[in-house]
TrEMBL record:
Annotated Pfam families: RibD_C
UniProt source species: Micromonospora chersina
Protein name: Dihydrofolate reductase
Superkingdom field: Bacteria
InterPro entries: DHFR-like_dom_sf (IPR024072), RibDG_C (IPR002734), Riboflavin_Biosynth_HTPR (IPR050765)
GO biological process, one term: riboflavin biosynthetic process
Domain (Bacterial bifunctional deaminase-reductase C-terminal): residue spans on this chain: 3-175
Gene Ontology molecular function: 5-amino-6-(5-phosphoribosylamino)uracil reductase activity
Family matches, as SUPFAM superfamilies: Dihydrofolate reductase-like (SSF53597)
């Protein structure tokens, strides 16, 4: 049985939006190894409509330094949660739509039929929905030692979600590598 794992670059003040504008000074070989282990365990990828639209325009056309991740993300099964998309055109993408109960049932079925990790990254709205519906198995955060001061926060305007720490490490850059599971 697979587990759904959400991965975020996050600032000390909880911002997850636009990590490309604040994250890279902290990215080094050690963080690359953490990210690489996550990618190696991923057997499917879960995303919302916005991320799907952005990534489906970008990743199929990449080469050079981006080729290793491009090969992975272009070939791995991708499941897109959306009630506004009518089709997916990116290689190996599958649309999951319907009301909350239908989508949750489809994801539970997917977890039962799949092994490994179904990775979810980039969408605070999606991770909140997964938590609210009891579908998220792990939340992995790379907490950067920076206060961004603006942007979407991971848990902005949400109910209380008790979590328990299942793993932690401090990287040389000062980034905290934290893994939580629902309590």
């Amino acid at each position: 049985m697979a587990k759904i794992v959400s991965n975020f670059f996050i600032s000390l003040d909880g911002v997850v939006e636009r990590p490309d504008q604040w994250h890279f000074p902290y990215f080094d070989d050690e963080m690359g190894a953490v990210v690489g282990r996550g990618v190696a365990a991923t057997t499917a990828f879960l995303m919302g409509r916005t991320q799907y639209q952005e990534w489906s325009e970008f990743w199929p056309n990449q080469s050079g330094d981006d080729m290793e991740f491009a090969s992975f993300i272009n070939s791995v099964p991708k499941y897109v949660l959306s009630n506004t998309l009518t089709e997916t055109t990116w290689q190996n993408s599958h649309l999951i739509s319907g009301d909350t109960d239908q989508v949750a049932a489809r994801l539970r079925e997917l977890k039962e039929q799949t092994d490994g990790e179904i990775a979810m990254s980039g969408g605070a709205t999606t991770v909140r929905w997964l938590l609210a519906n009891g579908l998220l198995d792990e939340l992995r955060l790379l907490v950067h030692p920076i206060a961004v001061g603006h942007g979407q926060r991971l848990f902005e305007g949400t109910p209380t979600y008790p979590l328990r720490l299942v793993d932690s490490a401090t990287l040389k850059s000062g980034v905290l590598n934290l893994t939580y599971a629902p309590a």
